[in-house]
Specification:
Layout (H helix, E strand, L loop, with lengths): L11 E4 L10 H12 L1 H10 L4 H11 L11 H12 L4 E8 H11 L4 E5 L8 H11 L4 E5 L5 H5 L3 E5 L3 H8 L4 E5 L6 H8 L12 H5 L5 H28 L1 H5 L8 H4 L4 H21 L2 H19 L7 H21 L5 H28 L15 H23 L2 H6 L7 H19 L7 H7 L1 H18 L1 H4 L1
Parallel strand pairs: 1-2, 1-4, 2-3, 4-5, 5-6
Length: about 475
């Protein structure tokens, strides 16, 4: 790699980094990496670099290491670079990202003759980058590949303009500058990619909010409407949490055989607006929660605090992570109760704790099975070793069986006698749940559990049949005339 002034008849190909060579933003990559590894250190860097963007970039580059080997590189830009070098041209990486990260990326790719990035004092962006290129190469002596409106001053003096995934308005402005212009990609992010990032399939967990009114047979239009609003609030906050988790786990997700296809990990959606969307969803969800009353808002706030602690720290604590996940599942039932004012029985909450501890253990069991089949995965960052697989499976099935026992005891309480005409028939539900838990653990053991267990149940035909059987058993126990 050379850093000498270029003298040649052929223009230098100058390549931008964020949004161009990489379908991401290195400032946000390092920010979320720092938040994941050391939240207090990251917040300190944000405070110290609030008024000095160049200083902020350097601090975060040092505190938030980025795995440059797994970044979502743009294949079209890599092809342009390779073609240029084949023709005997020189290529320079010139970016507003910090020099530290720029050199790491250039070293990994091995296609650049020069590397120039921001330092602690100078932010190489917009007019500053234009002035740097004009001084170094001269007007019309470089071809510039960029992606943003900040590149317009740079394109003005380029021999040729190449845009990458630029929106229509920016394309028009680039075309109007005068130099020959080419456009790579159309810049449109499909709505489906944004929707996938929100993980709507995970909203099925929030159906647990309706459990209190169903279990107490208090289904009425006011209760249904209140529960539905609570469901929406939980979905908004949950999607905010999912986005945040994906941002915190970018490096780990890119190393995972399935999670690497998530929109943020794959670079299908831009990281900066995704960060803003996470905040917007959170504000909307909490705002709706306040409309439903202080008890529900407090429950949702506690859920948010616990899930944030889980994302930043608790998910790396052995067994504690499973316990926390079971609490988060059960809190959805508590939230439904807080919204409607229906107090759930101790039996119901005890069943939910054991049942969801079992499902959380299944989730961790599935990850351990994945590590056994894929040497690139490392579950130790979650506090587990591959040798723990058998023990986690035992936790899953034993806790599940205890939940069935609690359910059987619950069925024999006077409260159930008041709600159902023939309560003993409900014991059939115990048999179905016993079978389903056993089957889920077996499916996971064989390496076929690729989703959250509740999401798996929604898609799995056998699980759907089990749910239908439970509904039918409940109908017979209640008395068919009450269901017609």
């Amino acid at each position: 790699m050379h850093d000498a002034r270029h003298v040649s008849d052929k223009p230098v190909l100058v390549v931008d980094l964020d949004g161009t060579l990489v379908r991401s933003d290195l400032l946000f990559e390092s920010l979320w990496s720092a938040l994941s590894s050391n939240p207090l250190s990251a917040l300190s860097a944000l405070r110290s670099g609030y008024t000095q963007r160049a200083r902020l970039k350097q601090d975060l580059a040092l505190k938030g290491p980025v795995d440059v080997t797994r970044l979502p590189y743009n294949p079209d830009v890599l092809a342009e670079i390779a073609k240029w070098r084949t023709g005997g041209g020189r290529v320079a990486l010139v970016t507003a990202s910090n020099q530290i990260l720029a050199e790491q990326i250039a070293s990994h790719i091995g296609l650049f003759d020069e590397v120039h990035g921001s330092d602690a004092e100078h932010n190489l962006k917009g007019p500053a980058k234009a002035a740097f290129l004009l001084e170094r190469y001269g007007a019309k002596n470089y071809v510039y590949i960029g992606d943003a409106a900040a590149d317009l001053p740079v394109w003005k003096d380029a021999a040729q303009i190449v845009t990458v995934n630029a929106p229509a308005g920016l394309r028009a402005r680039a075309d109007a500058l005068g130099p020959e212009t080419r456009h790579l990609g159309n810049g449109a992010v499909p709505v489906w990619d944004w929707l996938r990032a929100l993980r709507p399939h995970q909203w099925v967990k929030n159906v647990l909010i309706f459990v209190p009114i169903l279990a107490s047979h208090a289904v009425s239009w006011p209760n249904l409407l209140t529960s539905l609003l609570a469901f929406v609030a939980f979905c908004l906050v949950a999607s905010s949490v999912y986005l945040t988790n994906d941002l915190l786990d970018l490096s780990a997700d890119r190393a995972h055989p399935r999670k690497k296809r998530r929109p943020l990990a794959a670079g299908d959606i831009p990281i900066a607006p995704a960060s803003g969307m996470a905040v917007a969803l959170l504000v909307a969800g909490l705002g709706l929660a306040l409309m439903l009353g202080p008890f529900f808002a407090a429950t949702l706030a506690i859920y948010l605090l616990i899930t944030t602690a889980y994302s930043l720290y608790l998910k790396r604590r052995t067994i504690v992570d499973i316990w926390v996940l079971s609490i988060l599942y059960s809190m959805r039932i508590a939230a439904g109760a807080a919204a409607t004012g229906i107090v759930p029985s101790v039996w119901l909450m005890a069943f939910s704790i054991f049942f969801f501890f079992s499902l959380a253990a299944v989730k961790r069991q599935a990850e351990l099975v994945d590590t056994a089949d894929n040497d690139t995965l490392d579950i130790r960052r979650r506090g587990y070793y591959r040798e723990d697989l058998l023990l986690v499976a035992v936790m899953a099935i034993s806790s599940g069986y205890v939940s069935v026992l609690v359910l059987a005891l619950y069925i024999r309480t006077p409260f159930i006698d008041q709600l159902y005409g023939t309560p003993p028939i409900l014991l059939g539900i115990c048999l179905v749940v016993l079978y389903w838990i056993s089957r889920v653990v077996m499916v996971t053991h064989r390496g076929h559990m690729h989703d959250d267990p509740l999401v798996y149940a929604m898609r799995d035909r056998v699980s759907q049949i089990c749910v239908a059987l439970c509904v039918l058993i409940g109908a017979f126990a209640y008395g068919l005339e009450g269901w017609i």
